[in-house]
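Incident log, structure service

09:12 report received: a user says their structure output differs between two submissions of the same chain.
09:20 pulled the input from the user's history:
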Amino acid sequence: MNRTLEVIAGSDLVERPRRSRWPARLDYLQSASGLVLALFMWAHMGFVSSILFGKNALWVVARTFEGYYFFGHRYPVIVSIAAAVVLALVIGHAALAVRKFPINYRQFRTFRGHMAMMRHGDTSLWFAQVVTGFALFFLASVHLYIIMSNPGKIGPYESSFRVWDQHLWPLYLLLLLAVEFHGGIGLYRLSVKWNWFGGSNPDEARHGLKVLKWAITVFFLAIGLATLATFIKIGITAHPIYGERYVPTWQQDALPGHGGQAAPVAGQPATTSQAGGAQ
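09:34 re-ran on a clean worker, output below:
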């Protein structure tokens, strides 16, 4: 009788489930994709914030990523490909991370109860990462789709028109907040999880990592807010029209009305709108 119950319960079956290494592999992929996205986030902020050094600086950065300084002509499709790769990484990272999310209201209530009972800072940070990650999946997808579908419209006037005149600044503000908090928390948790900076005193190292995490978050938030404010200011003061491209100062003298013929703007013929945009 006991033998029959064991077979029914599945404890004595020949084909017993084996221990799988896939959860560990998926966890590693989640950590790796999160690290790549976090590093990309920092690099992206550095490139976009070049507008703080002037319109010419952002113009050069945008043309560089279009391959102008490598091939002699603009190839905006390069930007579309890069945005598509990042979007694929975002989707893959989200699919890996959602495995650990509460999947129903009961699990959510259980987790909230444990979080309230333990009052552990890292547990609260994990929940904040879940919330910001959920928001990022939608906000970042919209942003990346806009870049993929308009790869040649990145520049001081083009981006400012999108931010201010097309009323996308609330989306970029929410995206900035979500990505900086999510990325900062994620890097902190990766450092703790894989014991990158554990040292001889783990508690002291964790405290130092938290301080560093908040310092980095505040630093990039300040840069991001200043960058967004600069785009808004350009949109308000310069009044760029749809499709108008910024002309760098070293090309403005060659435009009509400045004593010469119009010079190409990074591989494209200059137009009347470009001349007006350079005023």
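09:41 both user submissions now match this output. Likely a transient worker issue. Closing.
09:42 reviewer note: The two ends are 93 Å apart (CA to CA). The first helix runs from residue 2 to 9.
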